[in-house]
Design goal:
The complex is a heterodimer of chains A (227) and B (416).
Chain A: E1 3-12, E2 18-28, E3 33-37, H1 44-51, E4 59-64, E5 67-68, H2 74-84, E6 85-88, H3 100-111, H4 116-129, H5 145-156, E7 163-167, H6 175-192, E8 195-199, H7 203-208, E9 211-216, E10 219-225
Parallel strand pairs in A: 3-8, 3-9, 6-7, 7-8
Antiparallel strand pairs in A: 1-2, 1-4, 4-5, 9-10
Helix pairs in contact in A: 3-4, 3-5, 5-6
Chain B: H1 2-15, H2 18-56, E1 60-63, H3 73-77, H4 100-109, E2 114-127, E3 130-139, H5 141-147, E4 154-157, H6 161-164, E5 168-172, H7 173-179, E6 186-190, E7 196-205, H8 210-215, E8 216-220, H9 221-227, E9 236-240, H10 247-258, E10 262-264, H11 265-268, H12 270-308, H13 310-319, H14 323-357, H15 379-404, H16 408-415
Parallel strand pairs in B: 3-8, 5-7
Antiparallel strand pairs in B: 1-9, 1-10, 2-3, 2-6, 2-9, 4-7, 6-7
Helix pairs in contact in B: 1-14, 2-12, 2-14, 2-15, 12-14, 12-15, 13-16, 14-15
The chains are: A alpha/beta (227), B alpha+beta (416).
């Protein structure tokens, strides 16, 4: 199991405590393409942040690649995110001061295992795989929405993560670009055997995945696999 | 190394806000520049003034008096006894330094030390039916030249002419003017002993101090001894030593040995030296105030950048950047502003000094136009730079720390 949760509950301690998700037991195998769906406020994104170690559960535990993460400090969680998890959000969140290639190289620089030329080469390869090889020196604001999202995907793949987590990755795109992004995820799963977990409210997207987890009021109400 | 990544991010973010960066850099630069200018002027004038203090008077003066009245023998015999003596008078000594010739001789043996026996007292100078009372100093012209500035402040004549003229006298410009007494005129000098002597003016000095210019005259030691009726007596030994800063310990050594009161120039000018301490405190507090304002500029820009870059911070954290990495990025920005401000400030400071050095103004009572005496050393630059960097780090610390406390979930949730 690359991701596994046991009884994960997340309660926001505010004036009136808000339960984001409750008693989530979810196991995702390597190479699965999972969509998480549900109505607004059902806790889809909250669950994704918990799986991605951006948030920590109030109860229960999240295991990444078989490793329990309870009790780890912020730096240890960051280290796991850096090596094993790639995020794609609804908004691209590219750093506006850097060009496309530099944005993709940022996580590699933080990891610091590759030389400058190796990082450059890997960045180019990732971009070429997403048909963005000719855009490397452009700034994010010179790209279209779909192109930016592809750069964001390339950045998420920079350190060759085990798991790719996507939060409404097509939520901000037109139907044509949505399809391109969807197809990229499908290809990453089928061709490279990556594990992708994507939160979406689009039925087209959910239909393209092999497994759909449906949330209502913070609980899993349906977990179905398709052939 | 990761700091290079942090540096490149920091530079890119600052480069994106050039105008605001420039304003903060200018704030720091002006602070540093003014600091350099003020402290150069202050320390320059302090050095100049100290120089004058040191050069205008002997470094050490041994006087024919004692610091404390002599202890009564009974107190020496019973140091812890409950003794009270009333109406005792300290023992009377003959005024004058005993055996001054040998003492001067001995001091002069030491390398770099110049010692001169002198006799001072009060006289009245009369000319054209006008009287001016004056302090007379009986000196040795050959040595006095090295002990004080009088020789270089001579308007006319010289101290050396005292030796070649029988009964010569050197007076100040103020006295010359008051009495209408000019070079080679014969003045009448009246001593307390009742002796009246005709003396020839062989030199007129102008040191710029009214008290001295009107009320100080120089004659040969032997003439003073005659005038004051103190044959073979000197009441001062004036000493110059190689390093003026050693004067206090040197004086203390002499006093311990001979018992006569030995005053170093520091002791005599304690009040003025104390004034410098206060003056420096004022300088530094004004400059610190400027730097505080500059620091607020840095605080402002870093805070703004942090506010604006919350999304970037969130994404970097989700990528796996540590909180410390984020803090580093913004600290570096503060330090960069500090460094740029420091470099620019050095330029501004240098420019200000160049400008100030051309200023000339008239001081009342001074005949020549005066300029600022400046301290051209690197010290103000180093201190100013250090001030700037410290202010930058302190100012950037809080916003940088705030940045590291951003919770990515809050930002991403809010943006989606």
């Amino acid at each position: 199991m690359v991701v596994e949760t046991r009884g994960v509950t997340r309660i926001l301690q505010e004036a009136v405590p808000v339960t984001l998700v409750r008693d989530i037991d979810l196991s995702v195998r390597k190479g699965e393409f999972v969509s998480i769906t549900g109505p607004s406020g059902s806790g889809k994104s909250s669950l994704l942040y918990l799986l991605g170690l951006l948030d920590v559960p109030t109860e229960g535990e999240v295991m990444i690649d078989g490793q329990p993460t309870n009790g780890l400090d912020a730096n240890a969680l960051a280290a796991i995110r850096l090596r094993k998890i790639g995020f794609v959000f609804q908004f691209h969140f590219l750093l506006p001061e850097f060009d496309v290639l530099q944005n993709i190289m940022l996580p590699m620089r933080r990891l610091g295992t590759l030389s400058e030329s190796e990082m450059r080469e890997r960045g180019m390869t990732l971009l070429a795989g997403l048909e963005m090889a000719d855009q490397t020196t452009k700034r994010p604001d010179q790209l279209s929405g779909g192109q930016r999202q592809r750069v964001a995907i390339a950045r998420a793949l920079a350190n060759d993560p085990l798991i790719l987590l996507a939060d409404e990755p097509t939520g901000n795109l037109d139907s044509k670009n949505s399809k391109i992004v969807r197809d990229i995820f499908a290809r990453l799963v089928s061709e490279q055997g990556r594990t992708v977990i994507a939160v979406t409210h689009e039925t087209d997207f959910a239909a393209a995945t092999q497994r759909n987890v449906h949330l209502v009021d913070g609980r899993i109400v349906k977990d179905e696999r398709r052939s | 190394m990761f700091w290079r990544v942090a540096l490149s991010i920091a530079i890119a973010q600052l480069a994106n806000r050039q105008r605001q960066t420039l304003v903060s850099v200018l704030g720091v630069a002006l602070g540093v520049g003014f600091f350099i200018a003020t402290s150069s002027i202050m320390s320059g004038s302090e050095k100049d003034f100290t120089q004058r203090l040191v050069n205008n008077a002997p470094h050490i003066t041994i006087k024919d008096e004692f610091r404390n009245p002599t202890t009564q023998p009974v107190f020496l015999a019973y140091p812890k006894g409950a003794i009270s003596l009333v109406r005792t008078k300290p023992r009377e000594y003959l005024r004058g330094i005993k055996n001054y010739g040998a003492k001067v001789e001995e001091l002069s043996q030491r390398s770099g030390v110049i010692a001169e026996a002198a006799l001072t007292g009060q006289i009245i100078v009369r000319y054209a039916n006008k009287d001016v009372s004056a302090s007379v100093a009986g000196i040795d012209p050959a040595k006095e030249k090295f002990l004080t500035q009088v020789e270089s402040d001579m308007r006319e004549g010289s101290l050396d002419r005292l030796k070649t003229t029988a009964d010569g006298i050197v007076i100040g410009s103020g006295m010359s003017q008051k009495l209408g007494l000019r070079m080679d005129d014969l003045a009448t000098v009246i001593a307390p002993s009742g002796l009246v002597k005709r003396m020839k003016v062989v030199g007129i000095f102008h040191v710029g101090n009214l008290l001295l210019d009107e009320g100080q005259v120089y004659v040969l030691l032997k003439n003073a001894q005659v005038l004051l009726d103190k044959a073979f007596i000197a009441n001062q030994i004036r000493i110059k030593i190689p390093n003026p800063d050693d004067a206090e310990t040197f004086a203390a050594g002499l006093e311990a040995r001979w018992g006569y009161r030995a005053e170093s120039w520091q002791e005599v000018n304690r009040d003025i030296l104390g004034l410098f301490v206060i003056r420096n405190a004022i300088t530094y507090s004004i400059v610190s105030a400027i730097m505080v304002v500059a620091a607020f500029g840095i605080f402002n820009i870093i805070s703004t950048v942090v506010m604006e870059k919350r999304r970037d911070i969130a994404i970097m954290m989700s990528m796996g950047f540590h909180a410390f990495d984020i803090q580093l990025i913004f600290l570096i920005q503060g330090v960069l502003v500090g460094i740029l401000g420091m470099l620019l400030g050095w330029g501004i400071g240098r420019g200000l000094l160049e400008a100030v050095s051309t200023l000339k103004f008239t001081v009342p009572g001074m005949s020549e136009r005066q300029g600022f005496v400046l301290d051209w050393s690197f010290r103000p630059y180093a201190i100013g730079g250090l001030f700037a960097l410290a202010a930058a780090v302190v100012a950037a610390w809080y916003p940088a720390h705030k940045a590291s406390e951003v919770r990515p979930v809050d930002i991403i949730r809010g943006a989606a």
